Amino acid sequence: MELKELPFGLRAYGPAAEPGYEDGALVLTAGPGQDRFVHPGRAPKVPAADAPRLLGTPPEGDFQLIARVTARLRAAGDAGALYLQVADEQWAKLCLELSPARYTVVSVVTRGSSDDANSCEVAGDHVWLRITRTGRAFAFHASDDGERWTFVRLFALGTEQEAAAASVGFMTQCPSPDAAGCTAVFDRIAFRSGAPADLRDGS
């Protein structure tokens, strides 16, 4: 799949989905029981649940992937997310998620098993999210307006070579098997070369 805003193509992973793209808006839907998480309190080798993803490999060097994420979140855990992966058991996601009853920015980093951290609550049904690669590290940010950014976390993932070849893109999830599914819309998509000079000053 090709998006005019990105200098790389996207490929579908996870459960079958039929993503849509029109007028700069990417639409991705997860069915009931579709999630991407490995519970840290259980054996790491328990297979992770899976969810629809669209991923591609950006050019070498530092970058920023940005999108406004809008979703009608109806069941706890429903989310639209930016996603990155460096290996089968090494991946991370930055979500607009219903957690547990409010729209919240949530981040997960998985190294065999997943962590799970809530950040700020979101007023309304949308938020801007950003993934940055800076050297061999990655940073997550969120924003109300796409201009001033709130720092969420900074982390390393995989080896230096794996981080340099990371895949990034979009994901949606609906963990509850009794829910109706979750559709997320990603627009205002942007890809920028380079990283902010200061990850914590709002730029």
Number of helices: 1
Classified by CATH, the class is Mainly Beta
**Major sheet, described briefly?**
8 strands, antiparallel
Low-confidence runs? none
**Termini distance?**
30 Å
CATH arch. level architecture: Sandwich
User: In the CATH scheme, what's the topology name?
Assistant: Jelly Rolls
Please provide the ordered H/E string of secondary-structure elements. EEEEEEEEEEEEEHEE
**Shape, principal axes of CA atoms:** globular
Number of strands: 15
Average pLDDT works out at 94
- Gyration radius, rounded: 15 Å
What does this structure look like?
The chain has 203 residues and is mainly β. The chain has one domain: Jelly Rolls (Sandwich), CATH 2.60.120. The protein contains one helix and 15 strands; from the N terminus they run βββββββββββββαββ. It has one helix at residues 160-164; strands at 11-13, 20-22, 25-30, 53-56, 63-71, 79-87, 90-98, 103-111, 113-114, 117-121, 126-134, 137-143, 150-156, 167-173, 182-193. The strands form two sheets. Strands 1, 4, 6, 7, 8, 9, 10 and 14 form an eight-stranded antiparallel beta sheet that branches. A seven-stranded antiparallel beta sheet has the order 2-3-15-5-11-12-13, with no helix packed on it. The two termini are 30 Å apart. The relative contact order is 0.27.
